[in-house]
Amino acid sequence: MADLIVVEDPDDPRLRDYTGLTDVELRRRREPAEGLFIAEGEKVIRRAKDAGYEMRSMLLSAKWVDALRDVIDELPAPVYAVSPELAERVTGYHVHRGALASMQRKPLPAAEELLTRARRVVIMESVNDHTNIGAIFRSAAALGMDAVLLSPDCADPLYRRSVKVSMGAVFSVPYARIDTWPGGLEAVREAGFRLLALTPDEQAVSIDDAAPHRLDRVALMLGAEGSGLTARALRAADAWVRIPMAHGVDSLNVGAAAAVAFYAVATGRPGN
User: Fold this and answer.
1) How far, rounded to the nearest angstrom, does the alpha carbon of residue 133 sit from its chain's CA centroid?
2) Per-residue confidence in pLDDT tens, the chain, 272 aa
């Protein structure tokens, strides 16, 4: 059973994992280097625990102690009980859900390891918006994608905003980083995947005509919001595909486009 520790000093060094959560650049540096990430809200905390992430500590306002009592009783990590005002002073924002947990990261698998047991893969290039990362992971989990591969410069899926937007779906879909870009895409092709680049370019074929659900192994490539896939990534693809648009709309937000494309890729899975 974890100890419940009442903390009244925002400078208490035991709260260091939770300091400055709104400082994006600081947290981008600190969290991977220190092997931690922050789960926010009861559902996300439970999903992180159920996914096998080790808990370092929890930071709770009083009303969440009872709601998370079973988690508190089960785990040995310290639980810091604080007022909402103190939580805001520590984190830098009003913690709406009143519950935070510092979790220990797991070592990332190699991309080649994920490819051996996957059939439907998402590949992201330079997606740096944490909201988009979270939305894409949530759609990937909901629509049956097997794995996510990230270019070296993609944002961290375990950053607090990404985890929150995904509602913990980042814990459900295995992911890895491709070490070299775009050269690492060749290993995906060698593993038997057809590389389909999602782009609004007029030269792309309709995703319906491409019929990705009929292919044995598909890797769907997504680019950053606005700029899309780079010319180098497009050249590395086996084919370009687009989502047909109406009413003069030229493209969708990458999160929305991903959901549409994942459905098209996954509809041919056994049992669907």
Assistant:
1) 5
2) 566 899 999 999 999 999 999 999 999 999 999 999 999 999 999 999 999 999 999 999 988 999 999 999 998 899 999 999 999 999 999 987 789 999 999 999 999 999 999 999 999 999 999 999 999 999 999 999 999 999 999 999 999 999 999 999 999 999 999 999 999 999 999 999 999 999 999 899 999 999 999 999 999 999 998 889 999 999 999 999 999 999 989 889 999 999 999 999 987 554 44
DSSP 211-242: -GGGSSSEEEEE-BTTTBS-HHHHHHSSEEEE
CB count within 10 Å of CB 107 equals: 6
**Alpha helix segments (H runs only) across 96-172:** 111-115, 130-142, 160-166
Q: How far apart are the first and last CA of the chain?
A: 44
SS3 percent helix, strand, coil of the chain, rounded to 5, is: 40, 20, 40
Cα separation, 219 vs 234, in Å, equals 13
How far, in Å, are 41, 44, 64, 121 from residue 67 at the CA level?
11, 13, 5, 37
pTM: 0.92
Closest CA to 106 of 51, 58, 149, 150: 51
- Whether residue 258 contacts residue 140, with contact meaning beta carbons closer than 8 Å, is answered with yes
Task: Calculate the alpha carbon distances from 191 to 30, 105, 194, 210, 229 in Å.
Answer: 34, 28, 9, 20, 22
Q: Please give the structure tokens belonging to residue 214.
A: 């009929």
Q: Which residues pair with 55 in a beta bridge?
A: 103
